[in-house]
Amino acid sequence: MSGEIPVGARLRQEHLAAEYSVSRTPVREALRKLQATGTVLLRPNQGAIVRGPTVRDIREAYEVRAELEALAAELAASWITGADLERMRTAEEAFGRAAERLSRRPPAELADAGGDWSQANDLFHEAVLAGAGNARLSEMVLELHRTFPRGLTWKALMEDARLLHENAGEHRAIREAIEARDGAQARGHMRRHVLHAGELIARWFERHGAAAAAARPAPGGRR
Questions:
Q1: How many helices (H) and strands (E) does the chain have?
Q2: Is there a single domain that holds both residue 34 and residue 96?
């Protein structure tokens, strides 16, 4: 996502093994795991090639995620327990505090400062999924989450403090609708929230992804 390893770069097992001072066996296993997530392609006689998502991949994934998480929010409005609702409130408050604190920091200091924000964001969405009470739905959403690096939303938001506050407001609207047991409102707010995040990520990738990938060399002998 950062472009440190360009899309299309070939990852050579012997170079990676030497770089990390390991044998080729764990390198092969790591590359298989990356292939399973769509991050690399393993081609016969060519080795591993960095794939990376396209902008279309991002938008399509977030369209699906928006529908699934919207359903989760609608179900949560009917079935959420007091404990999960309290988890959601706690996560929303932590999310708001993190957004407020981070919005006061200079942009140059934000690149590695999103840990608290990301943790609160994860807890909020996990509380909604738990409140829905549908294990299969939770599995499908979590699988989509694993498709993209965890810090990607933060990269898209950190460029504009206004976006941090907007994101916190979207969480608040979702929580209030669920707390009011209004399934239709909860569904609508969550769908718009996820689609908004997906579009921010797609636009960030359009601006930065290709340029960063073209500007930086790949590791493992391609410096």
A1: 10, 3
A2: no
Is 150 a member of any domain? yes
Buried b (16+ CB within 10 A) or exposed e, 113-149: ebeebeebbebbbbbbbbbbbbeebbebbeeeeebbe
Q: Are residues 194 and 104 in the same domain?
A: yes
192 CB neighbour count, 10 Å cutoff = 15
Instruction: Provide the number of structural domains found in the chain.
Output: 2
Residue 43 has φ and ψ, to the nearest 5°, of: -115, 135
> Do strands 10-11 and 40-43 pair parallel, antiparallel, or not at all (unpaired)?
unpaired
| Residue 1 near residue 216, CB atoms below 8 Å | no
Tokens representing residue 143 in the block:
């699988």
* Mean pLDDT over each residue of the chain, to the nearest integer: 84
DSSP state of 107: G
Task: Write the pLDDT tens digit of every residue in 35-89.
Answer: 887 788 898 877 899 887 788 988 999 999 999 999 999 999 999 999 999 999 9
Domain that holds residue 163: 55-208
Domain match, 95 and 180 both = yes
Residue 22, pLDDT score:
95
Domain CATH number, residue 43: 1.10.10.10
